[in-house]
């Protein structure tokens, strides 16, 4: 396999095609995505055991490198790392003076020099995790925990895991993603993964102001009318509404948004009867989703949360394994 | 044993009477409280060893769920969890945006879904830990680390441990609690525990504005005059003065309060000669206690701190054991 | 060996001359400093292994007691403690209310009572770590992570480790320290260590306003002219410029400072051709050092960072070993 440094997906793989960073679902093969899902599935079993830890990352140091605050996402990676027996260092750079007067590269070089094995990166700028993966020393794995509007691949993959566990496979599935697609890194990562994994149809539903212009080229069908968009759908993924967008006049009022794009019991009835309802959390009850739907029998929202830990364990373990296989090759 | 869901003590016990949550000392039997003391006593030995950790909670995840800041209390639970070999996740919800736009129940459901095994809860609202224990999924233990004015049972039990280690038993003991009883969750938890464990007499000493109206029904004798209240006392428990109360005119000036209710060498001389002096910390020297008393031979204040770790280890280990015994029963 | 309580170095040693605290490089013998370097060297090997942890401090509790914020230094001690398998409690007292209304001694007594084994202390006041070591209970080791203008001995020793690994030994070495010597705890600790370890000559370079008056008595030769000071030098240690000093009129403008005391490629050419360039980080590019120099072949700045973890592991392991040898003696 030849490496093309300009292909964003290739930087994620070793020369023999194993995962060594996890930055985006874009460009990854169906085989790799399926391997990630299978690995995560195998970790679900460990989570039901009395002793939830496995020794896969024993003696490794994982750095939670959060340039943007997110207690929730940071916590899931922290738990995943601890259950893999890694040492974890939380660096909340958004709040600390760590990088004061220091360039991003200097911060990275310093952390690398402390013999870190993995960076879990959250950053407000699109492309930050890629930039870091391109410049990091060999043997350090980079996991993207959300970069700007670009990607949030572990969230997308835990959603894929949830869909596969509920529906068995992706063939024949029609999936609708509803809300502010334009600003959503989660939606982008989901669309790539769903298409690669073979979903029959991916739809996005929202007002024109919140749909990216290039959406159809990403492989999704755009709907402004939610009632039409939900017809015949097997999976509904609601996005979290960023309320601050409303002040920018990108959004109608909260009540108007809910009337048009909130998932109510009535609108849910338009989808297939066995459709599942998903949401990355935290949910805004009564803003993008009715409580009766969020807590109802079709909701798998808490299953998504549960699947988040084994999914993060899976990509961390696989990326570390890929790094080490490369390392051994160099030593030979 | 029949479960009465309205009896706040019953929610703490499994069907066969083992501890599964620890929310309050109220309503717990002398047998259970004594078992807690005995278990904590056994952990004291481990703390003097070179290796202080025991593997009892290995592979378990304990979440320090602090809706109210308390670095001190949080640290004692963190140390206790680590010495039990648990993984610990500190969630300082008071300072973070974790629960922004999210209901308490949604926060809880999310944490449960991450396969947490125990919540250590601190909350400014009385009853918060009970509410959480009532709604938490089976197999998750809830430990109350202080809820509003209601209860602070681990503090009360480490005080009981200190008293028993100093005095041998509770029979024949007269115990005085001094200060702002009205706003003290610690005092309430102590009064229940002392009476259940068989103390001869429990007294509360303070101005009428800081004594609860129902105090005698709790099993304590009220004194406004500290000189009278200290006569013949074996144990003096000073409470920390919350200085912000003074602005509410509930309290006289600091100097006046000290004159009336501060524990000076002179006042201490009115108690039994072998009386011990206790304080939950942090102490306000010269406000509620004279330095010479706090640092004097009758003070056991630092022993209380030492006993805090094994006491927290004991209730965490017992509650987890109770949860697991329930779990095994379901599996059978 | 008789103990002189007024000799600041003696408090660091057990009666048979082993390290039990690490507070300052001043007064420590060449043998002890060399033992520290040898121990750190042995830990470097463990950091290249797949499993970086060693069980030396298993079951011990290390408290990162930071009265002054420093995410960077705190992180290196946290990583070092975790790689020694210790439990670590981070107490960021500068930001928390831990010590509110509580004296320093009360805070210490409380932490001691929680069966802590080691305090890593950072404080804005010179002498704080010594004060704590003088008052701490036996069996608790104190490591100075920087106190006021006084000392930062682990930084100085990781610099010594870097010099020894690069240059083989200290004999025949001329070392120049450049910048704000007056306010630098690092420079003080380096000068003591370099002289004890046998460096041929130690120079300090800076404007008169930033050189301590007693500098020659410390064993360093003062230069105001950097061009002259760098001649024949084997090691150049640049200090970080504290920009806030400029407002106090102690410093010329940033541009003027850089012109006079910044390390440029031109100035570097005045030193010996194989001179190494050091900096404690974080670096201010273009303020005290030119990027081409910081990233150039003579720079060992990132090696300093790498050596920081094994150096901290070394002093933590040695001090704990010294404490335990004292403990065993008492038990006999």
Write up what this structure looks like.
The structure is a homotrimer of 332-residue chains. The longest helix of chain A has 31 residues. The N terminus of chain A is likely disordered. The relative contact order of chain A is 0.16. In chain A, helix 1 crosses helix 11, helix 5 packs across helix 6 and helix 5 crosses helix 11. In chain A, the strands form 2 sheets. The first copy, chain A, has a 5-stranded parallel sheet. Chain A folds into 2 domains: 168 residues, 3-Layer(aba) Sandwich (Rossmann fold); 148 residues, 3-Layer(aba) Sandwich (Rossmann fold), CATH 3.40.50.1370. With 332 residues, the first copy, chain A, is α/β, with parallel strands linked by helices. Chains A and B meet through helix 2 and helix 11 of A and strand 2 and helix 3 of B.
Provide a quick synopsis of the model.
The structure is a homotrimer of 332-residue chains. The first copy, chain A, has 11 helices and 9 strands. Chain A has 332 residues and is α/β, with parallel strands linked by helices.
| CATH homologous superfamily (4th level) name of the largest domain in chain A | Aspartate/ornithine carbamoyltransferase
Overall pLDDT metric of chain A? 91
Overall 3D shape of chain A: globular
C-alpha termini separation of chain A: 20 Å
Q: Quaternary state, please?
A: homotrimer
Order of strands across the main sheet of chain A: 7-6-5-8-9
User: For this structure, what is the CATH class of the largest domain in chain A?
Assistant: Alpha Beta
Quickly count the helices of chain A: 11
Largest interface: A-B, 28 and 24 residues
- Tell me the fraction of residues in β-strands of chain A, as a range: 5-15%
